[in-house]
Amino acid sequence: MSEEQSTTCDFCGRQEPDDARRLTWSTSVENGRRRTYCDECSRTHLRAMEGKLDSEWW
Questions:
Q1: Distance of CA 22 to the CA centre of its chain
Q2: 27-32 contacts: CB < 8 A, separation 24 or more?
Q3: Is residue 58 part of a domain?
Q4: Which domain, by its residues, includes 15?
Q5: Per the domain annotation, does 24 fall within a domain?
Q6: How many domains does the chain have?
Q7: Which residues contact residue 29 at a Cβ distance below 8 angstroms, ignoring those fewer than 6 apart?
Q8: Dist. CA 52–CA 57, nearest whole Å
Q9: How many whole angstroms separate alpha carbon 12 and alpha carbon 38?
Q10: Residue 44's CB: how many other CB atoms inside 10 A?
Q11: Whole-prediction pTM
């Protein structure tokens, strides 16, 4: 038996158990730590992400 694991947005805390819906999420590596962001946070903070700003500056 496999249990569904949900992924949590590291910015807003939203959880998503559905793999297909997580395809729109983004990931980054900050200070050697992998961070995951939901589609809403990704869209809201797109320019900061493209500018390689750490999420603490958003």
A1: 9
A2: 28/55, 30/54, 30/55
A3: no
A4: 7-52
A5: yes
A6: 1
A7: 35
A8: 10
A9: 8
A10: 15
A11: 0.73
C-alpha to C-alpha distance for 48 and 22, rounded to whole angstroms: 21
CA distance 49 to 5: 26
Share of the chain above pLDDT 90, in %: 50
Quote the Cα angle for 30-35-37, to 5°: 130
The rounded average pLDDT for each run of 10 residues, N- to C-terminus, in the chain (58 residues) is 76 93 90 93 86 70
* Bridge partners for 7 per DSSP: 16
Beta strands in the chain, from DSSP E residues, in sequence order: 7-8, 15-16, 26-30, 33-37
The identity of residue 11, as a single letter, is F
Is residue 57 domain-resident?
no
Q: Is residue 2 part of a domain?
A: no
- DSSP helix/strand/coil, 16: strand
